[in-house]
């Protein structure tokens, strides 16, 4: 028996070396960890159970029969993050550049199937050169199998992609269909076609970083939801994210013990909104004061910063926060902000995560660039997402809620369950200046009259009370009590049930 066990250990040790010491060293020299080192950091110590360690490719073209590496460029298995089960696959760049062969794809689909069957999150760590060029169409078929499963699992289990090296060709579309993509700065990039092809086809000269680095994808394309300094930080942040996420769409959100009193009052919030309605304040400060221990995991921090999206906890349970940010473009809703928030709302709704919406929005952004860019369609995405959501929706209007943006931001009318306003709220069809200039156009040359009308408009409409008189606002609350009010509302709404008419699926404006 001993020699059999020795042989097993020898084979395992060989497989663990992947593409060999030289390529592992090269990986380290580039500031990257190997697939197995990454998995070690992501999962609880000693919890990783590997499958398919000895799988090899079956390609015989281009001399491939002679170069076989156990594992074939991807490490798969499952383990735990803070005791909760997750599935993982990690591309091994040291083996054929992590490229995808038929056998490699079958390993990924095996773990996708297991994750879906057992209803637990799946995390993919990417560091790869796309389709295994020697395999041709077998690799393309393999990608298709992976894509189909991404879609099948969408809305059932959380799917997370972390880009930790090159991610090109076929490798980009699987992450694109998962819930979140995170990147590592300076070592990762994502594109459908690389700089050489770009040069040939469009004659543009770009570097990989300029074409698809973390900066591009977190600030311009919005393909990525966040970026981290290095592999270690990225993986530790993924552990933090997993702690916020439910295992699946029916499990309910996790519950973590919190020492932060749910009914905690915060007097500093009474003076958060400045006297001058045109002066900004930091909505992130409010979120920090509402969540347990001030913990907030922000999604898409670098993109459309006029709206904030992310996860926090109240009474130990995950809540999705969507909040206008007056510090950036006065918190206006534009196409990017609408798309960003819509996707987040849909994620929360799919996974039964209650949503708290904090509103301070002067309206939709006017202008040709917005209209030509499809503001109507993009704004409709957010409106659609909120109107469709059946999770508990609690809304707090801190200051402005003007025009169509009032309706969109989880108003009572589109499904808000509990809608609060601070006494500083101004709920109206538009700001006083714009309103008076339209309805009292005849007096436009009389500054005194205009000033008087403006004051009149402000007193009548720029308060929460007109909306509260109609029941559109359930209660006007003191800012200091907001956390307590949210905690109580969320607890009351925990048993919310909504029946929606039977349909195959909706036709979300895309
Ligand atoms: C087979 C590959 C490979 C691939 C890399 N390698 N990509 N082997 N198929 N797709 C191998 C290299 O031969 C090399 O082997 C090792 O991996 C490391 O690659 P290097 O080029 O030395 O590394 P680096 O300089 O860091 O460049 C990484 C890279 C580059 C940018 C990813 O390798 C590259 O451009 N690869 C090709 C990318 C590509 O065109 N893929 C196909 C996309 S088409 P040795 O033995 O020297 O270590 C596609 C279609 C699918 O994916 C569409 C589905 C919808």
UniProtKB/TrEMBL annotation:
Protein name: Propionyl-CoA carboxylase beta chain
Homology family: Belongs to the AccD/PCCB family.
Domain CoA carboxyltransferase N-terminal: 1-257
SUPFAM superfamilies linked: ClpP/crotonase
PANTHER family with a match to the protein in the record: PROPIONYL-COA CARBOXYLASE BETA CHAIN, PROPIONYL-COA CARBOXYLASE BETA CHAIN, MITOCHONDRIAL
Gene Ontology biological process terms, A to Z: carbon fixation
Domain CoA carboxyltransferase C-terminal: 264-504
Matches recorded under InterPro entries: AccD/PCCB (IPR051047), AcCoA_carboxyl_beta (IPR034733), ClpP/crotonase-like_dom_sf (IPR029045), COA_CT_C (IPR011763), COA_CT_N (IPR011762)
Keywords per UniProt: Ligase
Pfam families recorded: Carboxyl_trans
């Amino acid at each position: 028996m001993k020699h059999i066990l020795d042989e097993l250990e020898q084979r395992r040790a060989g497989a663990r070396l992947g593409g060999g010491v030289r390529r592992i060293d090269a990986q380290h020299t580039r500031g990257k960890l190997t697939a197995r080192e990454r998995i070690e950091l992501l999962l609880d110590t000693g919890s990783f159970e590997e499958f398919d360690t000895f799988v090899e490719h079956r390609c015989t073209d281009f001399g491939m029969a002679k170069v076989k590496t156990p594992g074939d460029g991807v490490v798969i298995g499952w383990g735990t993050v803070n005791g909760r089960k997750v599935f993982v696959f990690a591309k091994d760049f040291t083996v054929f550049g992590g490229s995808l062969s038929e056998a490699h794809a079958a390993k990924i689909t095996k773990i996708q199937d297991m994750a879906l069957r057992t209803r637990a999150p799946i995390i993919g760590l990417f560091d790869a050169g796309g389709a295994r060029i020697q395999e041709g169409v077998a690799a393309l078929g393999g990608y298709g199998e992976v894509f189909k499963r991404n879609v099948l699992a969408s809305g059932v289990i959380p799917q997370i992609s972390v880009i930790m090296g090159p991610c090109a060709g076929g490798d980009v579309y699987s992450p694109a269909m998962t819930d979140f993509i995170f990147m590592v700065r300076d070592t990762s990039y994502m594109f459908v076609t690389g700089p050489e092809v770009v040069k040939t086809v469009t004659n543009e000269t770009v570097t990989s970083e300029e074409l698809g680095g973390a900066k591009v994808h977190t600030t311009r394309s919005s393909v990525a939801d966040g970026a981290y300094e290095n592999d270690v930080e990225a993986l530790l942040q993924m552990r933090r994210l997993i702690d916020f996420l439910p295992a699946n769409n029916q499990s309910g959100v996790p519950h973590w013990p919190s020492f932060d009193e749910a009914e905690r009052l915060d007097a500093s919030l009474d003076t958060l909104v400045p006297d001058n309605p045109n002066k900004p304040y930091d909505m992130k400060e409010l979120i920090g004061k509402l969540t347990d221990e001030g913990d907030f995991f922000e999604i898409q921090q670098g993109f459309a910063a006029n709206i904030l999206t992310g996860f926090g906890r109240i009474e130990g349970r995950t809540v999705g926060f969507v909040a206008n940010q007056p510090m950036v473009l006065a918190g206006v809703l534009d196409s990017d902000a609408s798309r960003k928030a819509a996707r987040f709302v849909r994620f929360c709704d799919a996974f039964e995560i209650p949503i708290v919406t904090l509103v301070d929005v002067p309206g939709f952004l006017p202008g040709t660039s917005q209209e030509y860019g499809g503001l109507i369609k993009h704004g409709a995405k957010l409106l659609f997402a909120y109107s469709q959501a059946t999770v508990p929706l609690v809304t707090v209007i801190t200051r402005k809620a003007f025009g169509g943006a009032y309706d969109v931001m989880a108003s009572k009318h589109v499904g808000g369950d509990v809608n609060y306003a601070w006494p500083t709220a101004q709920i109206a069809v538009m700001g006083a200046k714009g309103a008076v200039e339209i309805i009292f156009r005849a007096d436009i040359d009389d500054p005194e009259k205009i000033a008087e009308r403006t004051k009149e408009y402000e007193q009548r409409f720029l308060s929460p009370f007109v909306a509260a008189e109609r029941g559109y606002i359930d209660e006007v609350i003191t800012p200091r009590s907001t956390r307590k009010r949210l905690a109580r509302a969320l607890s009351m709404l925990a048993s919310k049930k909504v029946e929606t008419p039977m349909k195959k699926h909706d036709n979300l404006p895309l």
